TrEMBL record:
Keywords: Phosphate transport, Transport. This is Phosphate-binding protein. Phosphate binds at S67, T68, A69, S97, D115, S204, G205, T206. Belongs to the PstS family. Signal peptide: none annotated. Residues 60-352 form the PBP domain. GO terms for molecular function: phosphate ion binding. One of its GO terms (cellular component) is ATP-binding cassette (ABC) transporter complex. Pfam families: PBP_like_2 (PF12849). One of its GO terms (biological process) is phosphate ion transmembrane transport.
Length: 381
């Protein structure tokens, strides 16, 4: 399937601030997406991909797939690596976290991208792919807020809380002038318009993170166990983040969830969350960084899986935060692609690799965590 090709201009000097995502494709670089997933049109313009910071690995090709949330970041990383390392190529296919994990566990990719943590059974299964007694570990590589985007004509400032969102996405609140929504927006004239919630049709880490928030912050209203597969009742579905974006754009009354980068690129209004803080919290990179700061590493024995506090009520802390992980073997990786994979992931985790995606609306992986990621990459065998 063809894709729009653009280039992105880097800042002339590195900037230390919260991560964002912007995307580009240079000639000769292959980054694949499945149909209906990631349309990267509308991203920043011309870019010089030359960098002295990229340390090249050996020639060859490494295949990877998974998270659509990090597809834009991967596009930038792949392009810069390819421009500076002509003999090494990384092909990343944005198929969704569920498919990415499955392909990694089948041994068909060098690493997988996932926005949700592997289950214990999946880690056990990885021991069949990871040689020499190795197992899969999580490397947090990029993060950002999950936006709740909506299309309500005449309403560009909408406040909702976790309970109301849960009832909307479970089809128990089905009109925009419902008294519960009006109570949260007393100064807004809400239309008598049907609500159409859209969810992901594919297995998605974004779904896992969004439903984890609903379940943690409003357990009575959202009794379903968080999952990569949608469990709510009613509504409609679409494939991939850009599929959901298209549905929101095309349907008055629609509401859905996707990474902030997609909302920003497509001019979609985002819900402001009433978290119990002094003021409702907007989906911004800065507020997501505050949300991530409330999290912690829970992985053991070299695993860097993180736990997010979805119930935080700290002022300015946006709680629906997604962390995109690269799933690799700690040891026993495929020797044919090991050194290339290590070189590429070392670049993505480097200071410049993290800074290069700061203009496209993702929040930074905390310094104390990304330094551990760099160590784990070097230890891969």
């Amino acid at each position: 399937m063809g894709r729009n090709r653009t280039t992105v201009k880097l800042p002339s000097a590195p900037r230390r601030r919260a991560l964002g995502l912007g995307a580009a494709t240079a000639a000769g670089v292959l980054l694949l997406t499945s149909c209906g997933t990631d349309d990267n049109s509308g991203l920043p313009g011309a870019m010089d991909f030359t960098s002295d910071a990229v340390e090249c690995g050996p020639e060859g090709t490494a295949l990877a797939s998974g998270s659509t949330a990090q597809a834009n970041a991967m596009e930038v990383w792949v392009n810069m690596y390819q421009t500076n390392c002509e003999n090494g190529q990384v092909n990343y296919k944005a198929t969704g976290s569920g498919a990415g994990i499955q392909e990694f566990l089948q041994g068909t990719t060098a690493f997988g991208g996932s926005d949700s943590l592997l289950a214990d059974a999946e880690i056990e299964e990885s021991q069949r792919v990871c040689r020499d007694g190795g197992r899969a570990i999580h490397l947090p590589m990029v993060a950002g807020p999950v936006s709740v985007g909506y299309n309500v004509p005449g309403v560009d400032d909408l406040v909702l809380d976790a309970e109301t969102l849960a009832e909307i996405f479970d089809s128990r609140i089905n009109r925009w002038d419902d008294p519960k929504i009006q109570e949260l927006n007393p100064d807004t004239e809400l239309p008598d318009l049907a609500i159409t919630p859209f969810s992901r049709s594919d297995g998605s880490g974004t779904t896992d993170n969004f439903t984890s928030y609903l379940h943690a912050a409003a357990p009575d209203a959202w009794p379903y166990t968080p999952d990569k597969v949608w469990r709510g009742k009613g509504g409609q579905s679409a494939d991939g983040s850009s599929g959901l974006v298209g549905m929101v754009q095309q349907n008055a009354g629609a509401i859905s969830y996707f990474e902030l980068s997609y909302a920003y690129q497509n001019g979609i209004d985002s819900v402001v969350l009433d978290t119990g803080a002094a003021e409702p919290v907007a989906a911004t990179v800065e507020n997501a960084s505050a949300g991530i700061a409330a999290g912690r590493v829970i992985g053991e024995d070299g695993d860097l899986a993180m736990e997010i506090d979805y119930t935080t009520s700290e002022d300015g802390a946006y709680p629906i935060v997604l962390i995109a992980y690269e799933i690799v073997c700690d040891r026993g990786n495929n020797p044919a692609t090991l050194d290339l994979t290590k070189a590429f992931l070392a670049w993505t985790a480097s200071e410049e690799g993290q800074e290069v995606v700061t203009d496209i609306h993702y929040a930074a992986i905390p310094e104390e965590v990304i330094t551990q990621v760099r160590d784990r990459v070097q230890e891969m065998s």
